Amino acid sequence: MKKKKVKLRDLGSKERQGEYGHESGHNHDGPEGVSKFKTYLPAIFSFVMLIIGIAVDYFDAFPFFKGWIRIAWYTLAYLPVGFPVIREGWNSIKHGDFFTEFFLMSIATLGAFAIGEYPEGVAVMLFYAVGELFQNAAVNRAKGNIKALLDARPDEALVLRNGNFVTVNPQTVEIGERIQVRVGEKIPLDGILLSERASLNTAAITGESKPDTINRDEKVYAGSINLEGVIDVETSKEFKDSSITRILDMVQNATARKSKTELFIRRFARIYTPIVVFLAIGLTFLPYFFLNDYVFRDWLYRALIFLVVSCPCALVISIPLGYFGGLGAASRNGILFKGASFLEAITKVNTVVMDKTGTVTKGVFKIKEIKTAQFEEAKFMKYLMAMEEQSTHPIAKAILEYKAEGTDIKATDVSEVAGKGLRGTVNEKTVLVGNKALMASNNIDVPSETDDIVDSIVMLAIDEKFAGYVTIADELKEDAHLAIQQIRDAGISKIIMLSGDKDSITQQVSKKLNFDWAKGGLLPEDKLGEVEELKKQSDTKVAFMGDGINDAPVLAISDVGIAMGGLGSDVAIETADVIIQTDQPSKMARAIKIGRSTRKIVWQNIGLAFGVKAFVLILGAGGVATMWEAVFADVGVALLAILNAVRLQRMKWNT
Question: Which parts of the chain span the membrane according to its record (predicted)?
Fold first, then answer.
């Protein structure tokens, strides 16, 4: 919306529908204190003029304060707060939008002036203006965490070019370039740490404020603050693809995806407002045909009260503000919802489906057990490592992390046996490394104890004799047990694991973590089929949590798709509806709680607005309520709803 230089914050129809991408509306040319004073000056001026006018009326201290002098005084009090609203109402009418709140407030207050109720007319518009200022402050507060993210986005990078480090715009840095980050500076792009160690504050990315220690060759993320010593980083992504930029895009675009409640209230307001106008007209004139003592002024006054009370401000302000507060609270906790619609959808989830590797486990294989039959462990591992050096499999990487002392030995003539393992020569001995099928195909006897092993197993044979085996396992995440327990405590009735890993390992992990049921050995299309079957069940709302490219189809089809933002693939993150920046599955329970808190506050505001308005409408139509009660029913309720929505920004969700 085009920013207009007016004293009262200029509210267009889009803003009233909850699209908070607007400027704050006050003049930013001067210092902040002066700017705020200019914003509040019209309301202060009108308030002082109104109080003086009421006092003079009440005490009747000045006999000349009558007639045109009194009208001029209250008109002067009215204009600073009333003119911007009247102008906005007129602009809306010119664009074919007659029934706006600006129109309602303008007609009600000008009508009050027409029947001589000058103080009430000024008071209604003054309190409306104050409500607008409160709304502006609440929106700015809700946007504070997004501003913090904007501040976290680096605006320069120190990059090595032609033998020297030069300062450049991060958008000009290419993948693979070396950048240097000094103490207290933000890392400008995602990359790999080249220095031995780094201590980073990753709060802007993960929502966790505690320092994070990163070692050489590990990933670092743009927006993280370097806490100790100068570090060097090799960039792995362009600036536009970096984590902080992606987060900003998600959060800033989130408000565009409205919840069903928001959309309903918007549609309702557009139908409700014209009905209110015609009811007010009817309330003014219809009693003439049924009452003998009909007084036009009295019924017009009641109709004006009806208009003020009926203004849908509290609903169209507080509901989107509530969702906006929920989005902000979630992002402060390292959880990014891509829209208010998903914040609402997660409250309806009753079935959670989780991937295994990278979701409840770390996705990093470790040696669990070493059993030898011919040699001592160190010698056995040298033979095994010599062979695995020729492989790029993740299990090979886990084996190569073993630290063996002594002279390294090399494998030669290494060839792959499809689906079974490797064959080669080490120290002039024929060596086989692989699974049980490889041993069986070469007539090598394997101990029967291996039949009961669930974990991934790598066997070694030297010169056609079994030499031992190594078991490899993926570690559970530290909060995996806690995650399942908290998801159950959040009221989720069914928790399921679907994995591409072999079924025996999947069942073992499932048993450890107390899943309701699990299934392994699944291809991406198999996972998709399982979730589709779940969704066919009546009243089942499915949330799927995953991290890999293979999870993208399931993330897309789920009612709520949740991706791991750290380990997760870019495809999964782009497809998901919710991103957990810390890679902690326990954050899902917190996401559900934030969604429920947001929904609770939104419905509290709806109930408050409808309840109070209905009560005062009945009183107004019966001639009991005055314009002052109408002010409370409109602006007062709006202020209460705004303050209620702001509570979301102070809430803590301990999980």
Answer: 39-56, 68-86, 98-116, 122-139, 271-291, 303-324, 601-621, 627-646
Give the separation between CA 197 and CA 200, rounded to whole angstroms: 10
User: Crossing angle, helix 587-621 and helix 637-646, to 10 degrees?
Assistant: 170
Element (H, E) at 84: helix 67-94
Provide the residue type at 443 as one letter.
N
Strand (E) or helix (H) holding 213: strand 212-215
Gap between the Cα atoms of 338 and 327, Å rounded = 9
Taking every pair of Cα atoms in the chain, the longest distance, rounded to a whole number of angstroms, is: 120
Phi/psi for 262 (5° steps) reads -60, -50
Q: How far apart are CA 8 and CA 38, in angstroms?
A: 9
159 is written with which tokens? Answer: 């990059």
Q: What number of other Cβ atoms are within 10 A of residue 535's Cβ?
A: 14
Q: What is the pLDDT of residues 149-191, one digit of tens each?
A: 555 567 788 999 988 899 998 889 999 999 999 988 888 888 9
Catalytic residue (choose from 10, 355, 583, 634): 355
Beta bridge partner(s), residue 468: 372, 460
- Contact by Cβ (8 Å): 343, 578: no
Tokens representing 353? 């489906």
Q: What are phi and psi of 651, to 5 degrees?
A: -70, 150
CA distance 468 to 380: 8
Q: Which residue is it, tokens 């995602």? A: 190
- Identify any residues that bridge with 543 across adjacent strands, giving them in sequence order: 352, 560
Q: Are β-strands 465-476 and 361-372 bridged in parallel, bridged antiparallel, or unpaired?
A: antiparallel
Nearest to 578 by CA among 348, 237, 331: 331
Distances (CA, A) of 254 to 28, 247, 371, 465: 26, 10, 53, 62
pLDDT given for residue 313 in this prediction? 66
Residue 451 a catalytic site member:
no
- Exposed/middle/buried for 398, CB within 10 Å: 0-12, 13-18, 19+? buried
What is the pTM for the complete model shown?
A: 0.64
* Spatial separation of the C-alpha atoms in residues 655 and 653, rounded to whole Å: 6
Give the Cβ contact number of residue 243 at 10 Å: 25
Please say whether the beta carbons of 157 and 188 come within 8 A: yes
What is the per-residue burial (b if ≥16 Cβ within 10 Å, else e) of 117-135? bbbbbbbbbbbbbbbbbbb
Mean pLDDT over all residues of the chain?
79
Task: Give 598-604's long-range contacts (Cβ < 8 A, gap of 24+).
Answer: 598/322, 598/323, 598/325, 598/326, 598/329, 598/343, 598/344, 598/648, 599/261, 599/344, 599/347, 601/322, 601/325, 601/644, 601/645, 601/647, 601/648, 602/261, 602/318, 602/319, 602/322, 602/323, 602/645, 604/644
Residues in the chain: 655
132 contacts 317 by C-beta, under 8 angstroms:
no
What is the number of alpha carbons within 13 Å of residue 192 lying toward its C-beta? 8
Give per-residue pLDDT as tens, 340-371: 788 889 999 999 999 888 888 887 778 888 99
CB 185 within 8 A of CB 233: no
Pick from 382, 338, 374: nearest CA to 556: 338
Q: Which two tokens stand for residue 618?
A: 């009945």
Measured between alpha carbons, how far is residue 7 from residues 138, 192, 265, 312 in Å? 18, 50, 29, 23
Q: What is the rounded (10 degree) CA torsion for 174, 179, 184, 190? A: 40
* Helices 313-332, 260-285: crossing angle, 10 deg rounding: 160
